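Hey, I was hoping to borrow your eyes for a little while. I'm sending you its amino acid sequence along with the backbone structure tokens. Take your time with it, there's no hurry, and the full record follows here.
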Amino acid sequence: MLESVNTGETPKETPKPSTTASNGGRKKNGRFAKGNKAAKGNPFARKVAHLRTVLLKSVTEDDLRAIVQKMLAAAKEGDLASAKMVFDYCIGRPAEMVNPDALEADEAELAKRRRKADPLSWE
């Protein structure tokens, strides 16, 4: 691009941002330079976002209620996958079990972190 200034000098050419392989097609500040193909983003993520939007616009509250009722009925009839999904979403996954063999070491680590976080309370 030419830059013209009324100084009586001939116009000088303004340098374009470098997008060579040596800098990975990035500007000096680390951002993608114009023309870098990676700067366009993830087309798969855009497609998934679009499909999710279509799904959310299509499913009504009544549709969701009907689906949940069918899932609950299937769980009551013994469908383990349905029961697992109902439990996961209603109750949540169970907490990880405590390893009795590592209990002392875990408690020592916890005490160490507490002392580090608040040293005055342990004096």
In short: The two ends are 68 Å apart (CA to CA).
